[in-house]
Amino acid sequence: MRYRSLGITWGGGATAAGGVLLAAVAALIAIRPAVPAGLHRRADDLLPLATAALVLVAAGAVGLLRGRRELGTLGAIGLWVMVTGALLASGLQLAATGGTDVPWTATGAALLGGSALIAAAGLRAGAVPRPAAAVLLGASLLLLFFNTEDARAWLAGPFGLAWAWVGLVTPRGAAHR
Q1: Environment class of 143 (CB within 10 Å of its CB; exposed 0-12, middle 13-18, buried 19+)
Q2: How many domains does the chain have?
Q3: For residue 128, how many other CB atoms are within 10 A of its CB?
Q4: Does residue 18 sit within a domain?
Q5: Is the pTM of this model over 0.90?
Q6: How far apart are the first and last CA of the chain?
C-alpha cells in the first residue's frame, strides 16, 4: 500500500521515521554535558526512543526491500542481520527496564553490519538508488567510531539520516510491483 500524498510505501515511511528519530536521539545524547573523568554520560532515559527508532528502521527496511531479488544473498543476509540487531535491541531494552546492566555491543555490531551489507548489496545491484546506498555505507562505517561519552555521539546522526533518505527514495519493492 502506498501513501498517496508522499508516494512511498509503508516500509519507506517506517524507515524514514525511524532514521529521523535515531538522528534526533543521537543529537540529544551529544548535547548533554560532559561528565567528570571516569563517569559515564547518562543516556538511559533515551534508550526506549533509540530502541523504537532501531525497530522502525529494521521493520521498514524489511518492508521496503523484501522480495528484491537484485539485492541477492548479500542483501538478504544484511536484512536478517539487521532484524536480529533490532530484536536484540528490543530484548535488551526489556532487560534494562528490570535494572540489569546489559551489553549493547552485539546489537550495535548487528545493526552496523546488516546496514553495511544492505548498502553494499544495494550499491552493487542498484536496488537502492546509488547515492543513498553510498551514503548509507559510509554512515554505517562511520558508526564504528560512535561513542556516547563525547562528541562522537554525533556520528549516529548521519546513520539515522542515511536510513531516512533510503526510506524516502527507494522505489517500491517487488511485492508492490
Answers
A1: buried
A2: 1
A3: 29
A4: yes
A5: no
A6: 11
